[in-house]
């Protein structure tokens, strides 16, 4: 099963690309990914659609990166068993650079150094291969979009480490730190990777910061995912409920890609997470403090201390530095 959610904060001006969800049935291989066009650094107009509506560099960058990731995945499947290099993240970097660089405007800018980017976007992707009893995967990312594994016993666990100076998930909610690396057309970037393997059944999640960056604590993103799952009758309604939930609290475009592997159907998936949904609701949602309440700050830090060990257990080490 798979679920994709895509929302715009301002109708007709959303800069996230649509989520990428591709599964190759003969090999059991697939990719789930999200792309968040970085509107702050890529706000300048980059093209005008036939209807006359201008589109920003961030809008273009996210969609070009999505196209590159999808074509890269198809190349890796076609090459399977032949020992080629298309499956390496460096090949994905090259493919993205090859598509983005020719689209540069060519205009010089006097804006100070590290602020402005051409066609900038983040990416969080999971490239997986399903076996009989386990799924092997690589998380691939640039910027501050995130990939996770979701389990009934440990909840939501991050598989990526944000490319920001501050990587504490709670502090990021307070500070909104700038990114140190994004996919773009005008300077080198990197795509980091981390390998992992999990027993089946397994749920993989990719999300842009519109989903997780506007909640009171990191645990509340998991609560929204599981609450919608508990209330839904099928995967389509799960997507609809997630869309309505994020639209009610976010201040940004938001996109989400979910892949559930190894379940017998939607009811099996929902049943497996029923107890976890209750646990998260009791521990982090019911009776919570509200912003402006005298005890809000202490409550937020207390709940983060309880949630943090499992959430961070699978975060990779500091990513490699660019050469």
Automatic annotation (TrEMBL):
InterPro entries according to UniProt: PPM-type-like_dom_sf
Identification of the protein by name: Serine/threonine protein phosphatase
């Amino acid at each position: 099963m798979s679920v994709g959610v895509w929302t715009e904060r301002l109708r007709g001006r959303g800069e996230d690309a649509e989520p990428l969800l591709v599964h190759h049935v003969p090999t059991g291989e697939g990719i789930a990914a999200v792309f968040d066009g970085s509107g702050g650094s890529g706000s300048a107009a980059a093209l005008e659609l036939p209807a006359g509506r201008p589109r920003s560099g961030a809008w273009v960058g996210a969609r070009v990166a999505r196209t590159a990731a999808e074509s890269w995945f198809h190349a890796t499947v076609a090459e399977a068993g032949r020992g080629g290099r298309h499956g390496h993240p460096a090949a994905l970097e090259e493919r993205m650079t090859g598509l983005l660089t020719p689209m540069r405007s060519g205009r010089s800018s006097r804006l100070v150094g590290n602020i402005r980017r051409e066609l900038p976007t983040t990416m969080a992707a999971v490239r997986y291969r399903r076996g009989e009893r386990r799924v092997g995967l690589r998380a691939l990312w640039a910027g501050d979009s995130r990939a996770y594994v979701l389990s009934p016993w440990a909840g939501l666990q991050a598989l990526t480490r944000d490319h920001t100076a501050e990587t504490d998930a709670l502090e990021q909610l307070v500070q909104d730190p700038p990114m140190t690396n994004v996919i773009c057309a005008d300077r080198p970037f990197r795509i980091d990777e981390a390998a992992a393997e999990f027993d089946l059944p397994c749920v993989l999640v990719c999300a842009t910061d519109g989903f997780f960056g506007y909640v009171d604590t990191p645990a509340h993103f998991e609560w929204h995912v599981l609450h919608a799952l508990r209330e839904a009758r099928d995967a389509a309604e799960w997507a609809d409920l997630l869309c309505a939930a994020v639209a009610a609290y976010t201040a940004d475009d938001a996109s989400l890609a979910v892949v559930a592997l190894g379940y017998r159907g939607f009811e099996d998936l929902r049943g497996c997470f029923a107890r976890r949904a209750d646990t998260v609701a009791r521990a982090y949602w019911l009776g919570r403090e509200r912003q402006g309440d005298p005890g809000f700050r202490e409550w937020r830090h207390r709940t983060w201390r309880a949630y943090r060990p499992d959430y961070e257990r699978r975060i990779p080490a500091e990513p490699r530095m660019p050469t």
